Inverse folding.
């Protein structure tokens, strides 16, 4: 199974919003501060979900920090490995284009992320930020 992430087209945006309409998110949101980047997740010729990355920087000439804001795999493709592969591709994209990676994980899916994040300890220094403040765990990855 090959998985790729590509810049999201308008057509993919509409399909993703339609898929989200029955979930609590309802639509792709642009509330976070920073520059949103949307990527379609494809396996072969099939759109299976999307990745939402936020680029944040304090000055125009500064290299951005990236937040892996959201990954959504359409229900019929869940639990088949697409999310894991897409998450790795998104982390790799952020690693190549940003100074730091921010990731806030809802506790319900912490096991999923623990499996993925273990492979990045050589590339990044990983630290937790305010782990007791909510039902989420916040990770900050800095390049070694």
């Amino acid at each position: 199974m090959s998985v790729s992430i590509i810049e999201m087209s308008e057509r993919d945006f509409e399909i993703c919003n339609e898929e989200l309409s029955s979930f609590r998110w309802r639509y792709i949101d642009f509330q976070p501060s920073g520059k949103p980047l949307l990527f379609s997740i494809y396996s072969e010729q099939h759109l299976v979900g999307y990745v939402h990355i936020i680029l944040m920087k304090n000055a125009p000439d500064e290299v951005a920090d990236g937040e892996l804001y959201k990954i959504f795999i359409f229900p019929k493709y869940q639990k088949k490995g697409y999310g894991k592969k897409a998450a790795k591709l998104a982390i790799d994209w952020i690693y190549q284009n940003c100074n730091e990676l921010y990731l806030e994980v809802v506790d319900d899916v912490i096991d999923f992320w623990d499996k993925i994040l273990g492979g990045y300890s050589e590339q990044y220094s990983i630290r937790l930020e305010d782990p007791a403040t909510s039902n989420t765990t916040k990770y900050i990855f800095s390049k070694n």
About this structure: Strands lie at 3-7, 35-43, 46-56, 65-73, 100-106, 124-129, 136-143. The chain has three helices and seven strands. The radius of gyration is 15 Å.
